[in-house]
Write a structure and sequence with these properties.
Length: about 475
């Protein structure tokens, strides 16, 4: 069968990790501008020079050359986010910042010049800082209105330039990183489960609401949710471990269930009851969720994990982003992220069986330390065979899932050009096909170099996956 003819091959990025220009052309501060040590905090009073995200890879001033390189690889789609604070610097204004809007107009025009379809995340870990400080982020229902205003503005402005939209990046990450993901300033240890799940409700309602608004503005819009996916294998065949794995996975399914089925699943109602959580629904919330489900499910996939009913028996992993016990059958990246290509096939099958909606893999890749060396043609390059192997192995499993009958819209590998890592806030955890000369201490020329994987991915796209 092979990859479908119209398969959307491409790469993914996020504004806060690569645009730079953090205070240029009227942009306001975001939660990232005050977290120099990764997305988890602690925050600083003001942006500090050690924060690599402030300059990123200066995509803001390099976008034409960078897009040219993406086009050379043959990208059909390109995922990026709009920085909310470029459009509404504080998040709660009513009049947008024209210079911010113009930047994305130019960016989307540049992509279309090469027939690259933009795939745009509305909120990728870059909540305007003012909304965190004044409202405690998504714990406050008022954010729904601000987000609707922002989404309406960009949907209207780009209605003929952008067809594919995602509402919240890794929406389930708010469970683990409430500040980075939800702009919630209350420290995690002081944040009650009640307030956390109420914040989640606000995000889910906001997601449904802007899905409605988007479809009204352009019925051809394809609007999806975006989930961190992570299969949690039972550590042993002990039924208690199987149950633990189900519980672990349900934490994530909660978000796709509501986005795809339009209502809270029963397993979470039991959890709420047992934990004295009572979600306050405003009038109309239930109807809004039910009537505005997503057009497709998108997700990031980096690793699987394991679940156990006897956590004291094992050492848990600090490496895997959502925790869990390391799987003895798998190897891990330098950051402890366990590499599991078959897990991707499982995730694809599970999502598809559960919802029968098209799927989009919008993040996947290997963070690694790269070494610039002189290539065969005398140009500097990176011999990143380890990255090629990782991606190749995962794409083979995508092919298997297609054979299984799963409907997959496309694949955008994470950090197609090197950018600042979300969890470490460093440059040295690199994912790209394109090396950017910038170091952890902020030095570097910002010059771009094609890695070996650049040529490999070009061939993958050219052959539509035939050469995997
Ligand atoms: C996802 C985020 C991205 C990205 C990626 C890799 O969780 O959506 O923003 O950064 O992970 O993570 P890291 O940069 O920490 O290696």
């Amino acid at each position: 069968m092979g990859f479908p003819k119209n398969f959307l091959w491409g790469g993914a990025t996020a504004a806060n990790q690569y645009e730079g220009a953090y205070n240029i052309d009227g942009k306001g501060l975001t939660v990232q501008d005050v977290t120099p040590k990764g997305g988890f905090g602690p925050i600083t009073e003001e942006p500090t020079p050690d924060n690599l995200k402030l300059e990123g890879i200066d995509f803001y001033h390099h976008y034409k050359d960078d897009i040219k390189l993406f086009a050379e690889m043959g990208f059909k789609v390109y995922r990026t986010s709009i920085a909310w604070a470029r459009i509404f610097p504080n998040g709660d204004e009513t009049v947008p910042n024209e210079a911010g809007l113009q930047f994305y107009d130019d960016l989307f025009d540049e992509l279309h010049k090469y027939d690259i379809e933009p795939l745009v995340t509305l909120s990728h870990y870059e909540t305007p800082l003012h909304l965190a400080k004044e409202y405690d982020g998504w714990t406050n229902r008022e954010l729904i209105g601000f987000f609707e205003n922002y989404a309406r503005t960009v949907f209207t402005r780009y209605k003929d330039k952008v067809k594919y939209w995602l509402t919240f990046n890794e929406v389930n990450s708010v469970l683990h990183a409430p500040f980075m993901s939800g702009g919630i300033l209350t420290p995690p240890e002081e944040l009650s489960q009640q307030d956390l799940y109420q914040a989640i409700h606000h995000e889910l309602v906001a997601s449904a609401s802007v899905t409605k608004i988007g479809h009204e503005i352009n019925p051809n819009f394809q609007i999806g949710c975006m989930i961190i996916s992570m299969p949690a294998y039972p550590m042993t065949p002990n039924p208690k471990d199987v149950l633990a794995s189900r519980h672990f996975e349900n934490q994530n399914y909660l978000f796709s269930d509501i986005h795809a089925r339009g209502k809270y699943p029963n397993y979470i109602k039991r959890f709420f009851k047992e934990n004295d959580i009572e979600i306050k629904f405003a009038e109309g919330d239930e109807k809004l969720l039910a009537e505005n489900t997503v057009d497709f499910i998108s997700f990031s996939y980096y690793m699987s994990t394991t679940a156990t009913s006897e956590p004291d028996k094992y050492e848990t992993s600090s490496g895997n982003i959502l925790g869990g016990v390391p799987n003895p059958y798998l190897e891990a990246s330098e950051w402890g992220w366990q590499v599991d290509p078959i897990g991707l096939r499982l995730v694809l099958n599970d999502f598809y069986d559960r919802y029968q909606l098209p799927l989009f893999i919008v993040e996947n890749g290997l963070g690694a330390k790269d070494q610039l060396v002189e290539g065969p043609d005398g140009e500097l390059t990176v011999e990143d065979d380890y990255r090629i192997k990782y991606l190749n192995d995962h794409l083979i499993q995508v092919g298997e899932a297609i054979e299984d009958g799963v409907e997959i819209m496309g694949y955008t590998s994470w950090g197609c050009i090197d950018l600042v890592s979300a969890s470490t806030a460093e440059m040295s955890k690199r994912y790209g096909y394109i090396y950017v000369d910038r170091n952890d201490d902020g030095t570097g020329t910002f010059k771009r170099y094609k890695k070996k994987s650049f040529y490999w991915y070009k061939e993958v796209i050219e052959s539509n996956g035939e050469n995997l």
